[in-house]
Amino acid sequence: MVAVHPSRDVTIIAASEPKKPLPDQKKDAFFSKYFLAGQQMADPSDREVPPDADFVERFLITKRKYIAFLIPLTVMQVLWWLTAYRYNWFPLFATRWQMPAIMVLGSTVAGMTSEGGGAVAFPFMTLCLHIDPVTARDFSLMIQTFGMGCALFVVLFMGIQIERHSLLFGCLGSIPGMVLGFAFVDDLFDAGQKKMMFVSIWCSFAIALFLLNSQKKRTTYAAIPDFKPWKAVVLVLTGFIGGIFTSFAGSGVDICVFSINTLLFRVSEKTATPTTVVMMGLNSMVGMYTRAVWYGDVSQLTYEYLKVTIPVATMMAPLGSFLGSHFHRQVLACFVYVLEALSVLGFLITQPPLVLVLIGAGIIIIAFAFFYVISRVGERIMTAIERVTFASPAATNEQRRAKKSKTDPRKRQGQHQQQVQKKPKHEEQFARRLQATEILVEAEHECKALAEKEICELENLTFENSVNTAEVEKEVKELEMIVSKHEEFDKFLSDLTDTMDDGVSDPVATFYEALPAIERLLAGLSI
After folding, report:
1. CA-to-CA distance for 260 and 252, rounded, in angstroms?
2. What are 41's strand-pairing partners?
């Protein structure tokens, strides 16, 4: 096993026979891995409290996740209760209680997964309450405006990692697609066809996602790697198609962009999910404005359901975002499987015409084939990126033999690599882990060397009598800032190494997810 510590050499520890964990330890490890995976932040340094922080700043940093949940909850609840008291909305609960009850689940799902609240509201209203799809669509857009708007605030305030390219280019395509869908596409299908298409397309996506996640130790990224113009075009087209789906179902752009991110670009569900939450919140606002203000033909039933459901949505959607940011990506994917299975079951319970069932089955097969092809293309793209990012194990061995005359840590890594080659089953995994460790060690050595160089320059400056005192003080402050950045980078490397060696996380996947942060910190060090 390779152990890396800040300001120390790399040590090779002989692998001993692992101890069998106790049953309670297995349960704790399982729960911690899947339900306490931790939040994936856009900038991990935001969690650190500056030494000179005052009480308010320290409180905002240490209690950020609770503040992010309480601010939208408090504001929206106060406004709703005042308005409900002023216009006496309370009698509506006697006849419109169904949607507040179901949206306890729907709003939580909206904040937690890639599917908006409409993914629960639309099938429930059309299949169970037998409400026309137009009313269900309008209600979905309006309740998502409030619920996912609050969840959007939670994601942005907490600084949770989102895929910014997907958000920007996806919205550039989805908003025009939704507006055009309202005008030209919505009237082309009847109620039964809309229900069938909604259920069929997303059922096939759930199947494709399940097959993708069945691949153990699947490599994922925190952001779209090697972003290029053709990827922007793909996101715009995906957003446009998703906007059309949203125009008749109340949601769709979220799942479309989520599917392309996870299947094609191999973005982790922990990044793709909050990205779609923000995207669906923005699109719902535009959709609500278009339907309520521009068209102005929203039914009274929609407004009645909306009035009694707002307090539930504004409470549960931020809670869903808060919980979902801690869950493992596999748990988030499981929510998608369950939701789509329930949608299909609900559609079949309504006993639709046989023609619609057959057409729906055909759409599932065709859409599944499409998603499967997308996932295979994504696998090839990922392989090409890995070939560019990391050399092959054979090339790595040659590089180690060429560098064996360098420092002792490098020699010991070369010896350990030769031992690893005796294990063909795990050769590739160990090679990648050693590559990751070597990169960390090299970065740490360069960091220390640069720090020593800066300190030497500082000492030389203090002995030059011709230098102005003010200039010396300025140089001292700049060098102190540089040293502080080095210490911050050392701490990050130490924490990353501990995470890679904790025995629970996949070291290769952990290193891949940490690469953007490493590059950002290295850029700040001018290495």
Report:
1. 13
2. 160
DSSP string, 31-82: HHHHH-----BS-GGGGSPPTT--HHHHHHHHTHHHHHHHHHHHHHHHHHHH
Please report, for residues 454, 466, 471, 478, 480, the alpha-carbon distance to residue 462 in angstroms, rounded to integers and kept in the order given. 13, 10, 11, 14, 14
Q: What pLDDT does 473 receive?
A: 73
Provide the sign of the torsion angle of the four alpha carbons 353, 359, 346, 123, taken in this order: negative
**135 in Cβ contact with 157 (< 8 Å):** no
* Per-residue tokens: 291: 């339907």
Number of H helices, E strands in the chain: 19, 2
* One-character DSSP codes across 222-282: SS-SS--HHHHHHHHHHHHHHHHHHHHHS--HHHHHHHIIIIIS-B-HHHHHHHHHHHHHH
Establish how many alpha carbons lie within 13 A of residue 252's alpha carbon, considering only the half-sphere containing its beta carbon: 30
Q: How many CB atoms lie within 10 A of CB 496?
A: 21
Give CA–CA dist 297/138, Å, rounded: 10
How many whole angstroms separate alpha carbon 365 and alpha carbon 204?
A: 7
The C-alpha atoms of residue 507 and residue 60 are separated, in whole angstroms, by 32
Domain boundaries along the sequence of the chain:
55-352
Q: Which of 69, 262, 47 is nearest to 155 (CA)?
A: 69
Asked if 283 and 289 touch (Cβ cutoff 8 Å), the reply is no
Specify whether the CB–CB gap between 294 and 179 falls below 8 A: no
User: For residue 154, which of 306, 55, 39 has the smallest C-alpha distance?
Assistant: 39
- Asked if pLDDT for residue 295 goes beyond 80, the answer is yes
Nearest-10 crossing angle of helices 191-213, 354-389: 40
Give phi and psi for 11, each to the nearest 5: -115, 140
Q: Cβ contacts of residue 324 below 8 Å, gap of 6+?
A: 111, 112, 113, 273, 274, 332
Place of tokens 């950002």: 520
CB 482 within 8 A of CB 524: no
pTM of the model: 0.64
Instruction: Measure the CA–CA gap between 464 and 493, rounded to whole angstroms.
Output: 36
Q: Facing residues of 21 across strands?
A: none
Q: What is the pLDDT of residue 392?
A: 43
Q: Angle CA(195)–CA(197)–CA(198) in degrees, nearest 5?
A: 65
Range with the poorest average pLDDT among 110-119, 152-161, 379-388? 110-119
CB atoms within 10 A of CB 149: 22
Q: If pLDDT is split at 50, 70 and 90, which confidence band does 238 have?
A: very high
- What amino acid occupies position 338? V
* C-alpha to C-alpha distance for 124 and 103, rounded to whole angstroms: 10
pLDDT of residue 404: 45
